[in-house]
């Protein structure tokens, strides 16, 4: 009988012990659930830090995508392909991707189109109009840099010396300004083919080798290259001077450099001063910076697996890396 009386209190005690020990487990589960909810909310917020849509309005301090207006950071960057634009140059009724910091302020804008600028920074055609500050070619009226270089047959000309209806190759810089005009009245102005060999003093197109002129100009899109940097296998257009030397080399393809001055993708490796993103192994510029959450610093760290936008200088080096928040994508383009 005493055993039965003793057994009952033990059962109550055991039940109490079970309830007592279960409470922290429930609390821990509740905390975990709260943590998940906070994490889920954070992920949703991060998810919204990239927005895509059509620009319906722009002011000096804000941009509107669809019906939603966002504040612009004082140092907001605006890009269209290779071009860096000002806020005043943003066209309405065009699609864009905007990047927001943790406060919801726009720190970067990437335009998908701009009717005032060609998609490619190299134009070839007839110059139909010239003024002291602009030229019209291939339907685009473009500002001319005060330091523009104009070449014909290897010689440098003044803007006013360009003849009417001249055939030319025109190069634009990152702001859409003409920085180089090559008049294609030179001897054999349109040699085009595959680069089969390249040395510091000559280039071979197909089976024909041409000596580089002393002041040769070599360009691939917005990049300025040296003779030893021309990749074999690329497609090129060569203009010769009256001496038969390669006065200009315009690369049409280059597997070692991206088409645009901005590259977006996942960082797959970091090796000293070289970073690989989206299959391109690119050198870091001496003044390389990292932007994270709208803050730019020389000391911000970067790790493999992160998604980023790399901005390249005219030498094809990474000058700035904008690290995106994990899970950034929203809407449709």
TrEMBL record:
It holds the Pfam family DUF5666. Residues 124-156 form the DUF5666 domain. Residues 1-27 form the signal peptide. Keywords: Signal. This is DUF5666 domain-containing protein. It comes from Sulfobacillus acidophilus.
């Amino acid at each position: 009988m005493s055993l039965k009386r003793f057994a009952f209190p033990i059962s109550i005690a055991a039940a109490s012990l079970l309830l007592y020990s279960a409470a922290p487990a429930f609390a821990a589960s509740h905390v975990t659930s709260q943590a998940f909810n906070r994490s889920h909310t954070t992920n949703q917020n991060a998810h919204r830090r990239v927005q895509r849509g059509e620009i319906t309005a722009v002011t000096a301090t804000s941009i509107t995508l669809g019906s939603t207006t966002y504040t612009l950071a004082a140092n907001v960057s605006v890009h269209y392909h290779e071009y860096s634009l000002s806020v005043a140059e943003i066209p309405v009724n065009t699609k864009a991707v905007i990047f927001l910091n943790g406060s919801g302020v726009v720190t970067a804008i990437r335009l998908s189109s701009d009717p005032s600028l060609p998609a490619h920074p190299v134009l070839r055609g007839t110059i139909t109009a010239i003024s002291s500050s602009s030229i019209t070619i291939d339907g685009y009226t473009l500002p001319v840099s005060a330091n523009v270089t104009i070449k014909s047959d290897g010689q440098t000309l003044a803007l006013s010396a360009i003849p009417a209806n001249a055939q030319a190759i025109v190069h634009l810089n990152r702001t859409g300004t003409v920085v180089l005009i090559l008049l294609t009245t030179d001897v054999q102005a349109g040699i085009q083919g595959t680069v089969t060999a390249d040395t510091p003093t000559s280039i071979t197109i197909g089976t024909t080798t041409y000596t580089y002129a002393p002041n040769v100009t070599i360009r691939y899109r917005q990049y300025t290259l040296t003779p030893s940097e021309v990749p074999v296998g690329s497609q090129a257009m060569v203009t010769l001077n009256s001496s038969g030397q390669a006065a200009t080399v315009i690369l049409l393809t280059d597997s070692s450099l991206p088409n645009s001055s901005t590259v977006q993708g996942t960082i797959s490796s970091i090796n000293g001063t070289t970073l690989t993103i989206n299959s391109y192994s690119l050198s870091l510029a001496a003044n390389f910076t990292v932007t994270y959450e709208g803050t730019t610093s020389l000391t911000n760290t970067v790790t493999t697996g992160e998604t980023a936008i790399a901005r390249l200088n005219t030498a094809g080096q990474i000058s700035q890396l904008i690290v995106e928040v994990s899970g950034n994508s929203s809407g449709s383009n």
